[in-house]
Specification:
By secondary structure, the protein is mainly beta. Helices cover 9% and strands 37% of the residues. It is flat and about 165 Å long. The relative contact order is 0.04. The N terminus is likely disordered.
């Protein structure tokens, strides 16, 4: 059995020990006899003896532990109860009566304790009587007290070959200077620390320090050997220092006597990848083209003739010293200048091959760069970035084009096909044949067989020259035949770009350029003259125009026609007989003139006859393009272009006048309006109509007989005036007669467009636009006066009053009417009016019902009211813009006026309050006091110019003295200190007002107050009468007059107040809204006045 005693684990091995002591062959039987001999009297089992015994010392390191029991035991239970401190692994050998424990490793020097707990039991299930333990010491006392120590620190070291071939030696760097430590391999690099005694693992791991730090894992080989296994290789030329601090302790809790420090230098660079070689094929161009390039290392050799060839024949191979991370290393490799291509690796990742998409460029140095991010599969970067280069093809220039030829000579030589073929690369050509394209080919002769497609695409002409490309001579000769004749006196430049390449893929190292001048530096002019007829309008119409060359002269008076029926023709004279078809097609007239062409004079004269008259004022441009050619195929070197103006540069005005009638409304209505030319005058008073029934005509007079249809279509009036249009017999005068009156104040715009034409189709140069105003610019005021009867009430009552215009006067005394007639309003207009719409346009507020009567001329409207007007009422009278005259002229703006019937009045109100004992007057207005406000003041308490104060500010004294008694008249006589006086701002209706006035006591106790008497003053003696000052006398039942009853012989005083305390009692005098003035207006709002009796 193998047991870790501290965890009480055990394993039963496949053998049973037959001997407990070396002299016994049948231990179980012998022990039984032995224990029987000893006697087994005790009921509980127990340990009879053990080896070693408690306190034994100086024991060997291979000491075993043996235990003997007095009874047959449950061995498994006893093994479970067995333990050793400090913990030790070992094996058990057992019999029914014994245990023998053998440690797996030698004991460390020191003291140990083994224990058997009471869970050890015999076969009958009886526990041992007592826990059993024994201490023993391995070695002598001196050994037992030793502290642990580090015996060695090792790392693999050796040469590069040793490190790579795993023949490196595990070398102690604690006691040796190690400078050739291997970089190692990932997950296999390790440092091993060996101790002299079994160590406590956790405390030992925490005592380990490595500088510089790295990622590693702790692996215990045994309790005396600890390895640090690293995740990555060591760094080249890095010195690592390992320290085991003194906090590390063994299983007896003995600490290291002192810290241990060792270091080593990583001297073997066995894992750093290097570039072993970079190879490219190199050789002469012809050798490379045949695929015979020599593979050459550019790391060790300067290569200046690397093959250009096909891409598959020009790979670049980079060989590394160790397998590489293919993804990251591919990203670290670049070629400059940038070249498209693909990367591929061999199976073990040591060779990277770059295959370009296209051939290398001749005479170009390519640089292969490897960044220091290139990394091996061992995760080791190359030491530094690397650059290597080679030159593609060679360093000397190549000649790709031998010649570029074109025929040259005179027109005659070129037309005859005898032009001299000349190389434009070696000669200046200023007279290249223009003639037929087939007689002017351009031939390029190359030095090598060419890639026909790429080379054709690399050829460009300036200016553009399209043609047919034909290869010959083993694809070394290219013939370009232009699609059309070359342009005379034009220099053509031919450019062969570097995209041109040989069949073997070699591009031109630089572009090749040649040029030639077609024809000559001079120009060929095929046109002699271009003639047409010109003159004044009269000369052209009369057939007396003359011919003029528009090429040699600036013509601005070309005839529209040479008579009323004959068109103007253009005659083109050429120097040479012409090819009629190409020349006809080369002629353009702008703007276009539909025409016919006829040739004469041996095809040297071309006549163009328009299908219709030329347009007056139009400039025409005639162009003869370069496609025109002679009968011998000689083209014009440049276009011929000229222009001419038809009619002249002066503006054509076909209009003589536009006339109508103008004047005031009365003049127009009366037929006395004057004729005016609105074309030359700014007319703002054209008649709305020329009578109450006749409408105003507009007469347009032209300078020439007009084409009536086009002219009528060219005329517009805005806003539209419906009416009839009549032409004079000569078609020079057009009369427009409206169907209705013109709109007063409306601005009309008459326009005659350029589409108007004379009988001979001459249109005006510019459109004509003119405006006029019907009636006038100012709004029409049709009302003259609005009159009402005015005067005093007595005057109005005795007669109709005076008629007054409310437009020009402010009327605040209009008559109300009287017993014989009521008031009337008279509206007087300046022109006859449309009665219905005008009556509807009149407004009166408040309304006055009555009869409306118009005068015979519809200029005066009289409104007679059905009843009297209301006194003091303001009547608003208005006339709206809907009012119209018989000529449909509207009132220009609304008119609003007003008048007051009777007189201007205001709402009645209390103007002042006081008592009779004061100096408060008995006529309007009363004056209030700002100082003393008791019953003795020299003025009233208050007037409406002052603010109302608290009741204690207004003091009166009750007339009662308190001396009266029942049946007695004492204190019944009136005392004026409590007689209140109210002054109104207007004449009041006596009855409604006295009924609206009251007095009450506000302070307790409740009393009864009655009006004893009152007196009105400041009255008016004439209608509507009324008074403004009211004096009031009140009696209070609780006053002493006649005791507590009202006296039958008169009671005129309020209760005694002379002995009242301050602030008491309070009385309130009020006038309600039921009070009205003589005009029936109510007092508003109600009036309240509070006083204190004193």
């Amino acid at each position: 059995m193998l047991v870790r005693s501290d965890k009480v684990k055990w394993v039963i091995y496949v053998f049973l020990l037959s001997l407990f002591l070396s002299s016994c062959k049948n231990s179980s039987s012998d022990l039984k006899k032995f224990f029987t001999f000893l006697g087994d009297k005790e009921e509980n089992p127990k340990v009879l003896s053990s080896t070693p015994g408690n306190g034994d010392k100086g024991l060997p390191q291979n000491q075993k532990i043996g235990v003997i029991f007095n009874k047959p035991m449950n061995i498994n239970a006893c093994i479970q109860s067995f333990s050793v401190q400090p913990s030790v692994n070992g094996f058990f050998e057992t019999t029914d009566y014994s245990l023998l424990f053998t440690p797996v490793e030698l004991w460390n020097y020191g003291t140990y304790t083994f224990i058997i707990t009471k869970s050890c039991e015999d076969r009958d299930g009886n526990d041992i009587k007592d826990l059993y333990s024994a201490n023993f010491t391995i070695g002598n006392a001196e050994d037992a007290g030793l502290k642990p120590s580090v015996s060695s620190m090792t790392v693999m070291a050796g040469t590069v070959a040793d490190c790579n071939l795993a023949s490196a030696v595990d070398t102690d760097f604690l006691s040796n200077d190690v400078s050739t430590a291997c970089m190692g391999n990932p997950k296999a690099n390790k440092i091993t620390i060996n101790f002299t005694r079994a160590m406590n693992r956790l405390s030992t791991q925490s005592a380990v320090l490595l500088s510089p730090d790295a990622n590693y894992t702790y692996v215990w080989n045994s309790d005396t050997s600890l390895s640090l296994v690293f995740d990555t290789a060591f760094y080249q030329n890095q010195r690592y220092t390992l320290k085991v601090d003194a906090i590390a302790r063994d299983y007896q809790d003995k600490f290291l006597e002192l810290p241990y420090v060792g270091s080593f230098l990583v001297g073997s660079n066995n894992l750093i990848p290097t570039v072993s070689s970079i190879t490219v094929p190199a050789a002469a161009l012809d050798v490379c083209g045949a695929g015979g390039g020599v593979i050459t290392d550019i790391v060790t050799t300067s290569v200046s003739n690397a093959c250009l060839g096909n891409p598959s024949n020009s790979p670049v191979s980079i060989t590394f010293s160790t397998p590489m991370d293919t993804t990251l290393t591919s990203q670290a490799v670049s070629i400059s200048p940038l070249t498209g291509g693909s990367f591929s690796w061999n199976t073990d990742g040591t060779v990277l091959t770059f295959t370009p998409d296209s051939v290398f460029i001749y005479k170009t140095r390519y640089t292969i760069s490897i960044k220091n991010t290139a990394i091996s599969t061992n995760k080791i970067y190359i030491e530094s970035a690397k650059e290597y280069s080679f030159v593609a093809g060679g360093t000397s220039d190549l000649t790709f084009v031998n010649s570029i030829t074109v025929p040259r000579g005179t027109i005659t030589e070129c037309n005859a096909g005898t032009g001299v073929v000349t190389d434009m690369l070696t000669a200046s050509i200023n007279d290249a044949c223009v003639g037929n394209p087939s007689s002017s080919p351009i031939v390029i002769t190359f030095a090598y067989e060419m890639d026909t497609a790429a080379t054709k695409s690399a050829i460009a002409f300036s200016p553009t020259l399209n043609g047919t490309y034909v290869w010959s001579g083993a694809n070394k000769v290219l013939t370009i035949t232009p699609d059309s004749q070359l342009s005379y006196s034009t220099r053509y430049t031919l450019l062969i770009g570097t995209a041109a390449k040989t069949k073997t893929g070699i591009n031109l190292t630089e572009q090749i350029q040649g040029s030639f001048l077609a024809g000559s530096a001079g120009s060929i002019n095929l046109v002699n003259t271009i003639n047409l007829s010109h003159g004044t309008l009269a000369a052209c119409r009369g057939g007396s125009s003359s011919s003029i060359d528009v090429l040699a002269n600036s013509v601005s008076d070309a005839c529209v026609s040479t008579s009323d029926t004959a068109v103007n023709t253009l005659t083109i004279n050429f120097f040479y007989p012409m090819d009629t078809a190409s020349t006809n097609n080369a002629i353009i007239i702008s703007p276009s003139i539909p025409h016919s062409k006829s040739w004469s004079g041996g095809n040297q004269v071309l006549t163009l006859t328009p299908d219709s008259f030329l347009s007056y004022g139009q400039r025409y441009t005639i162009t003869i393009g370069t496609s025109a050619k002679t009968s011998t195929n000689v083209y014009s070197s440049s276009s011929t272009s000229t222009s001419f103006l038809v009619g002249g540069t002066a503006s054509v005005n076909l209009l003589s006048s536009v006339s109508s009638t103008h004047g005031t409304l009365l003049a127009c209505r009366g037929g006395t309006g004057a004729t005016v030319d609105i074309l030359s005058n700014n007319t703002a008073d054209v008649c709305v109509g020329i009578s109450d029934t006749a409408y105003t005509p507009i007469v347009i007079t032209f300078a020439y007989p007009m084409d009536t249809a086009s002219t009528l279509n060219a005329i517009s009036i805005s806003p539209n005036i419906p009416g009839t249009k009549v032409w004079s017999a000569s078609d020079t005068v057009l009369t427009l007669t409206p169907d209705n009156f013109l709109s007063y104040g409306q601005t009309y715009t008459l326009s005659i467009g350029t589409s108007a034409k004379t009988k001979t189709y001459i249109s005006p140069t510019n459109a004509t636009s003119l405006s006029f105003v019907a009636g006038g610019n100012a709004p029409a005021n049709l009302i003259s006066t609005i009159k009402v009867f005015t005067g005093t009430l007595p005057a109005c009552n005795s007669g109709p009053g005076t008629a007054t215009d409310i437009i020009s006067s402010t009327v605040e005394n209009a008559c109300l009417g009287n017993s014989t007639s009521n008031n009337s309003l008279e509206f007087t207009f300046s022109v006859p009016m449309n009665p219905t719409v005008t009556e509807n346009a009149i407004g009166i507020n408040p309304s006055i019902s009555g009869a409306k009567v118009w005068s015979s001329g519809n200029t005066v409207l009289t409104l007679s009211s059905d009843s009297k007007l209301s006194y003091g009422t303001r009547y608003d009278t208005s006339l709206g813009t809907a009012a119209k005259s018989l000529q449909n002229v509207s009132q220009g703006s609304s008119l609003s006026k007003s008048f007051i019937a009777g007189a201007k009045i205001t709402t009645p109100a209390v103007q002042a309050v006081g008592v009779a004992s004061q100096g408060c007057g008995s006529t309007f207005p009363g004056v209030g006091s700002t100082v003393t406000r008791d019953w003795t003041a020299g003025s009233c308490y208050w007037d409406n110019s002052l603010g109302l104060l608290s009741p204690s500010s207004y003091l009166f004294q009750g007339g009662d003295t308190g001396n009266g008694s029942s049946g007695s008249t004492t204190d019944c006589a009136d005392v004026n200190t409590d007689n209140f006086r109210i002054i109104f701002n207007t004449y009041m209706d006596l009855n409604t007002t006295i009924a609206a006035v009251s007095l009450k006591r506000l302070s307790p106790p409740y009393t009864t107050i009655l009006l004893a008497s009152y007196v009105w003053s400041d009255c008016q003696a004439t209608y509507p009468y009324g008074c403004r000052v009211l004096e009031l006398v009140y009696a209070e039942q609780e006053a002493s007059c006649n005791g507590t009853l009202f006296g039958t012989s008169g009671d005129f005083n309020l209760y005694k107040t002379s002995d009242a305390i301050a602030g008491y009692p309070l009385y309130q005098l009020s006038v309600s809204a039921a009070a009205k003035d003589v005009n029936g207006l109510s007092l508003s709002p109600s009036f309240y006045f509070t006083m204190e009796g004193n």
